[in-house]
Amino acid sequence: MDTPFAEGPPNGRLPSTSDDADMMENENMETKIGSQESFTEFMAQSLPQKPGPVIHRRADRHYSKRMRRRLVYKNGEVNITQTNIRKRRRRYLADIFTTLVDIKWRYNLLLFALAFILSWLMFAVIWWLISFSHGDLENSSNKNWKPCVKEMYSFTSALLFSIETQHTIGYGARHTTEECPEAITVMMIQSCFGVICQAMMTGIVFAKLSRPKKRAETLMFSKNACICKQDGDLCLLIRVGDMRKSHLVEAHVRAVVIKRKITKEGEVLPLYQFDVDLGYDEGRDRLFLVWPVILVHKINEQSPFWEMAPEDLHREQFELIVILEGIVESTGMTTQARSSYLPGEILWGHRFERLVTFQKENGQYQIDFSRFHNTLPMDTPQYSAKELSEMSDRGHQNLAIDDDEEVTSVGSTKHDKFPSPYVIKRHGYAQTDFDYDEDDLISQESSVQSRQTNESETLL
């Protein structure tokens, strides 16, 4: 059984995008890549170009159709249909309140109207039968006749009296008398039924309006995920944000990769869930979501992306699902927002554009949500995290061998200016052999500090 995921995009050379200035950087001109561009577009720009026809991914409608085959849509809806459930209607009727809350609004409003109209008609028939059996309709013109319900002459009068009784309107013309005990009993029953029916319908409408599911409409996920180096490690980045000022309480996030797995016994598990660590041990999965936050997944040996290189990303068939949960501050109910990313929606060698600035004129931090989905390219090795780790280990081994060979020949020459155990750092770079100029060092350090001060005033 194959997994129902999208295949990779078609091969071909893609056109390059126009250059635009990154206003959030300090006088650096970088190429801005929008979030709607896929990983293959950026790779095609960086690889050597070969002669041939230009094919754009968006022009391939067949590829766009394959991209829709996903388990979880971007809006969080699950692409699953349930069939062959025994006694399904009976199970749904057993939990009637949840069923009424989950159904669509048009069915809910239709049920609301039918519940009242049918109850009015049912009790109107009962009132008409009481008046008919007592002879009130035949003796309506007899002024000496004492009816069960005064001013009731037809079925229309019975319907009006039923509405007045159920909703305690009481216009004053029609009312029951002590002539018929059955009329008094029906009036008490209808009064109780009207209160119960109105309370149920009002509760269902209120529960449907205050569902925490609608709170997820104001929680945003980036259209693309990014892979780049951060603190020396390959990391997967996803941006989440909240558009409301009433923030989520105890917000936390988790992610899984749905992918096919083959067990040691040869069994194929088509929809196996691989856990994606978003900093659970360090507490980075618990979010303070007052501004858009970038989720970071460090690609290590336990990561499902450990052996994926850029050229392997689109050959894999998987779906990354991100789930954000929290308590709605205004109602106290728990809400959940979901989104997913296919291989074509993961950009290799990109990072998210900064969107939080500090306004000096009013002293507030401003969030520009027009840049929420924008990404910027950055230098990233075109190797998997496993290959980078192996190359780093070999580099450390060779460096250790070179240090052992040079310790006797080079170590004695370093004592002319500085002792060999000491390393002087200038502007963050380790230096061991240079012409020392104290005035030049002080002036350069002061310029760096002033530039960093200006950045802190305009950039988060």
From TrEMBL:
Biased composition, class Polar residues, residue ranges: 443-460
Inward rectifier potassium channel C-terminal domain mapped to chain residues: 219-391
Major localization listed first in the record, in broad terms: membrane
Annotated InterPro entries: Ig_E-set (IPR014756), IRK_C (IPR041647), K_chnl_inward-rec_Kir (IPR016449), K_chnl_inward-rec_Kir_cyto (IPR013518), Kir_TM (IPR040445)
GO annotation, biological process: potassium ion import across plasma membrane; regulation of monoatomic ion transmembrane transport
GO cellular component: monoatomic ion channel complex; plasma membrane
Transmembrane segments: 109-130, 183-207
Membrane topology: Multi-pass membrane protein
Catalytic activity: K(+)(in) = K(+)(out)
Ranges for region Disordered: 1-22, 436-460
Entry's Gene Ontology molecular function annotations: inward rectifier potassium channel activity
Positions of the Potassium channel inwardly rectifying transmembrane domain: 72-212
Subcellular location: Membrane
Record keywords, A-Z: Ion channel, Ion transport, Membrane, Potassium, Potassium transport, Transmembrane, Transmembrane helix, Transport, Voltage-gated channel
Domain of life, source organism: Eukaryota
PANTHER family (alphabetical): INWARD RECTIFIER POTASSIUM CHANNEL, INWARDLY RECTIFYING POTASSIUM CHANNEL 1, ISOFORM F
Family label: Belongs to the inward rectifier-type potassium channel (TC 1.A.2.1) family.
Name of protein: Potassium inwardly-rectifying channel subfamily J, other
Species this chain originates from: Mytilus galloprovincialis (Mediterranean mussel)
